[in-house]
């Protein structure tokens, strides 16, 4: 965004910014950080006419969630904990992003909007019941190693935080930026 022009920054947080789940300490903490970054950036950039908001999706059918939803019973457990009884689609998130980028939301800044089918009203499924052992430091649910049993297990991970921002100006220009670190 050029100096003197208003615009909108849209960060992607997660339902996990406000709803913890076992085995996802790094992810939940990172997404809570995105929600707070959104508030701070809104304070700092508002004087320049730049609005900053975030989207906090729940379970959305994407290539990133496909391995998780392939675990027998896990998607059903998530859906059972939603008020609307369904997972989201990418178009659901895109519609909210269009709203936040548009002038219709010109008075909104510093907010994280949760698009989760009402999952934030209930509880998160108990993931360890789907993945076996619990309480291993530094482990998160994930697919079993090649050549191991067919059922998912725990895998060691290295925490990486990345922030993906969509931006749009009131003149219709848009783009995205990704920052990452570990």
UniProtKB/TrEMBL annotation:
One Pfam family this sequence matches: adh_short_C2
Alphabetized, the UniProt keywords read: Oxidoreductase
Q: By its UniProt entry, which InterPro entries does this protein fall under?
A: NAD(P)-bd_dom_sf, Sc_DH/Rdtase_CS, SDR_fam
Which SUPFAM superfamilies does this entry report, sorted A to Z? NAD(P)-binding Rossmann-fold domains (SSF51735)
The entry assigns this protein to a family as follows: Belongs to the short-chain dehydrogenases/reductases (SDR) family.
* Name by which UniProt lists this protein: SDR family oxidoreductase
Natural source organism: Tepidiforma flava
Q: List the top taxonomic levels of the source.
A: Bacteria, Bacillati, Chloroflexota, Tepidiformia, Tepidiformales
């Amino acid at each position: 965004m050029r100096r003197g022009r208003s615009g909108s920054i849209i960060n992607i947080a997660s339902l996990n910014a406000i709803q913890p789940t076992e085995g996802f300490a790094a992810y939940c903490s990172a997404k809570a950080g995105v929600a707070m970054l959104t508030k701070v950036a809104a304070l700092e950039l508002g004087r320049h006419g730049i609005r900053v908001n975030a989207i906090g999706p729940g379970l959305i059918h994407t290539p990133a969630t496909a391995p998780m939803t392939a675990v027998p019973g896990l998607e059903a457990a998530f859906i059972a904990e939603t008020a609307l009884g369904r997972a989201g689609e990418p178009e659901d998130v895109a519609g909210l992003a269009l709203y936040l980028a548009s002038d219709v939301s010109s008075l909104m800044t510093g907010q994280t909007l949760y698009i989760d089918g009402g999952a934030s009203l209930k509880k998160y499924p108990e993931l360890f019941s789907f993945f076996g052992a619990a309480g291993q430091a530094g482990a998160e649910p994930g697919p079993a190693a090649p050549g191991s049993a067919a059922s998912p297990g725990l895998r060691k991970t290295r925490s990486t935080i990345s922030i993906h921002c969509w931006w749009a100006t009131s003149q219709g220009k848009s783009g995205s930026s990704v920052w990452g670190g570990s």
